[in-house]
């Protein structure tokens, strides 16, 4: 019998090669086997007929209901409080979603959350050439925040990268138009403000949906090869500023004192002027009162004036030399000792002390003469 004759022929070389079924299966048989396996899963049976077909329909319905439930629950999502959601429907912008729980069509809508409240930082640094052809390394950092989610996502390919490139451009432009001394010392604030202004002008046409919150000038230093020389120059500038401040402080301190001294001298001059005028007026008044007395008794008035004058003279001295009339002795009157003895309740003169003895005359002759001189002086005062 040939291998391809009808009937139960086991001589097919593709199915029973070498006594074993090693050939590739028939496509119809393969599909039939797959159908039988699925029918067994959902309760179907080859010999069951209509009952297997009913069980298969119920299983399909159960699978469809489960798939619908999973699809519905898969569409729920949450937008955080600080975010806003951008809805893309088949890749096209379809609207914005506010924070909270929402639902989307799975496999149809795509949600892109955008943080709207977090302040982000973006650094920039590098070696740059200044206007006076010096090389300086500058480090700067900006802080920014998203204000328009749609522009932030769709205006450019990557808004953060575009902002970084704009910052580099603005920083190099400003540094290239500034002097190195200003960058390293007193012009840092001006450089910071200029970079901020230039950066806003650059990003304005692109509508990045960003706002610059702050610009921080972190560091600026020369290359390491010339750092020592620049440190000396900066120290000299700081010393100059310090000396100027000290000079201004000294000027502010000495000027009020000088003005006060001038004012005091003016007041003293005015007081001296008033004193001289009053003394002169008093002298005139005293002379006017003394003139009638002098006209009445010239000799007595002249003597009283002399004695008063001598009293004023001797009032300011503690030593008096007395020439005794009728003798050759010079007597020294220790007035300071006499005043101390008077204040202590002692006698005015206990024993005269001779200072110069021209003859061998005894001291007893001096005492009466001194006493007589003193009596006449006191009588003249009276």
TrEMBL record:
Segments crossing the lipid bilayer: 55-79
InterPro entries recorded: Band-7_stomatin-like, Band_7, Band_7/SPFH_dom_sf, HflK, Membrane_HflK_N, Stomatin_HflK_fam
Ranges of residues in domain Band: 74-234
Keywords: Hydrolase, Membrane, Protease, Transmembrane, Transmembrane helix
Protein name: Protein HflK
GO molecular function: peptidase activity
Tagged with keyword Ion transport: no
Gene3D superfamilies: Band 7 domain
Listed Basic and acidic residues bias regions: 373-382
Compositional bias segments (type: Low complexity): 351-371
């Amino acid at each position: 019998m040939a291998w391809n004759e009808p009937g139960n022929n086991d001589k097919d070389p593709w199915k029973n090669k070498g006594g074993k079924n090693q050939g590739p299966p028939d496509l119809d048989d393969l599909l039939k086997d797959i159908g039988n396996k699925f029918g067994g899963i959902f309760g179907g049976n080859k010999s069951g007929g209509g009952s297997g077909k009913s069980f298969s329909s119920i299983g399909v319905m159960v699978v469809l209901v489960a798939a619908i439930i999973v699809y519905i629950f898969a569409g729920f999502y949450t937008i955080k409080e600080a975010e806003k959601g951008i809805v893309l429907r088949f890749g096209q912008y379809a609207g914005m979603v506010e924070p909270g729980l929402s639902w989307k069509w799975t496999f149809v809508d795509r949600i892109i959350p955008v943080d709207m409240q977090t302040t982000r930082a973006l650094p920039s640094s590098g070696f740059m050439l200044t206007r006076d052809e010096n090389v300086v390394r500058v480090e700067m950092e900006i802080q920014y925040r998203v204000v328009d989610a749609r522009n932030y996502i769709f205006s450019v390919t990557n808004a953060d990268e575009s902002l970084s490139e704009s910052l580099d451009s603005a920083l190099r432009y400003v540094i290239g138009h500034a002097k190195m001394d200003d960058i390293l010392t007193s012009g840092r604030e001006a450089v910071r403000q200029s970079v901020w202004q230039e950066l806003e002008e650059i990003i304005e046409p692109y509508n990045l949906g960003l706002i610059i919150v702050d610009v921080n000038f972190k560091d600026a230093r020369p290359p390491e090869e010339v750092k020592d020389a620049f440190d000396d120059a900066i120290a000299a500038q700081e010393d100059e500023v310090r000396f100027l401040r000290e000079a201004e402080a000294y000027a502010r301190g000495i000027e009020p004192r000088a003005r006060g001294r001038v004012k005091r001298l003016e007041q003293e001059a005015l007081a001296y002027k008033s004193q001289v005028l009053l003394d002169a007026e008093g002298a005139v008044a005293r002379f006017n009162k003394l003139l009638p007395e002098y006209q009445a008794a010239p000799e007595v008035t002249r003597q009283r004036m002399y004695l008063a004058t001598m009293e004023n003279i001797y009032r300011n001295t503690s030593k008096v030399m007395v020439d005794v009339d009728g003798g050759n002795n010079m007597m020294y009157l220790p007035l300071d000792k006499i005043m101390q003895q008077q204040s202590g309740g002692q006698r005015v003169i206990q024993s005269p002390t001779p200072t110069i003895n021209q003859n061998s005359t005894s001291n007893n002759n001096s005492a009466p003469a001194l006493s007589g001189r003193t009596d006449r002086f006191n009588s003249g005062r009276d």
